Structure formats: structure tokens, C-alpha cells
Amino acid sequence: MSQPLQSHFSDPVLLSRIQAEADFALSEISDYINALPVGARVLEIGCGTGFLLARLSELRPDLEFVGLEPIGGGFSSFERTLDRITMAFPKLTIHRTPVEDFTLAPDVSKFHFVFSVNVFEHLQDWRTAVTRVAALLAPKGQMLVPCPNYLIPYEPHFGIPILITSGLTKKVFAHRISEVEERTNCSGLWDSINFISVPAFRRHCRAISLDVIFDRGMLAKMVERLGTDPEFAARQSGIAGIARLFRALGGTRVSRLLPPDMAPYMKAHVRLRNI
What's the mean pLDDT in 93-100? Predict the structure, then answer.
């Protein structure tokens, strides 16, 4: 009998954070995973510790799961856990390479579903990543990208407002940034952020003939998550009170009518055009 996934973590704080993020990710992708036929190929971009892919492989052992994880800046603490999970789940295929450099051999099947949860804001070149994924998708394949929307001037990893530019923000909040990176053992986290936004993502998809739809309900979901996920609420303590007031005033219902550009978090559903 295989060891429980939790046993592969030596840091309980990291485990708590990874479990909370995996639960959130599952809530966003489970409908897509459940709809896949037997034998479908699934790719996770930025699989981190491999925790989510391992859980998915337990839920759907009839699917083929592949992960990409180059262990970029701010995430070196993931590497030892990823090594342990990769050893424990030999059916998982993990490539230690960024998506911008990833290609498939001509005789290897393309992917039916590609997802990347809270990773695209850390990619060195997210536009190249989207273009690369388009080449990796099977004819009816889909990609799902939930991540922050930096059109809204708030940085959720550090819980600080963005003051005009990233450089000015880093200078003003230098102590806060340093404190968070040290506490979470994520040195270089701030410098990994590319400040992706809904309008920029939309423009790039249209430019390379991809169809993209953004979920209008993400603001409501994130507000609700602040009330149901203690680990997430602790990380976002600076806005938890505002979220409670927003919810009490019925803001979550109104927020579903707003354009996705106005939410601090986005969920992009991407498909090849004319399919």
C-alpha cells in the first residue's frame, strides 16, 4: 500500500499551503478532469511539489498525467518534495523544464487538457507559454489558466497594493517583501512575478487565433474562499475584513455582473479556434 501523500512533506507549513492550493485547484479543474475519456493526456504547467498531479492520478488512474516544473526563482523549497513524490508515483512523468522550452516528439500524442493554477504570473515569458501550449493541444484540447489579474493593483502573494510600477512598489514595501520571502522560504518570489493581466492575455490569444473565455464568477469565488479556507484567509489577512463587508453587503452577487477585467483574479478557458 502506497504512503499517504502528506508523508512526503517534511515541512508542515509548506504542506498546509500546498494542500489548500490543491483543494482550490481541484475545485476549478475537476469538472474538466471528470469529463475526459479513458486514456486522455493531461499536462500541468508548473506542478510544484507534484502534490496535485499525484492526487489526480489517484482519482483518475485511467488518464496519463505529465508535469512541467523547472523549479524557478522563489520555489526552490519544492524540489526535495517533488523528488520524493516522483519516486513514489512512477506513473507520473515530470519534465524539469519550463513550458517555453518544452516540445513533443512527432510520435507522441498531444494533450487533451492543459492546466496551470497560480503559475502563469511567475513564468518568464507567459506569451511564449500560451503559444507553446497551442502547439501542444490536441484538436479538441483545452487549456485552463487561473491566476491573479494584475490590472487590479494588488499583489496577493505579499498582500500589498501595486504603486504605479513594480520597481516603486518593491522600494516602498521592501521590508514586507523581504519578510514574506524569508517566512515562506521563497527567496526571489517578488522578482518572479510578471504582472499578467486579463486584457493582455485576451489580446495575445486573439493575436494567435485562440478562443478565450474568462469566468465572470472569480471575484465571488475568491471572496467566498476567504470565508471558508483558513490557510488562504491567513495569507490574505489584509483584505479579509474588506471581503467580509463586501459579502455582507451582497457584493458577491453584483460581482458576477462585472467584466472579468475588474476582478483581481482570472480564470481563462482557452481553445483552438474554429473547433
Answer: 92
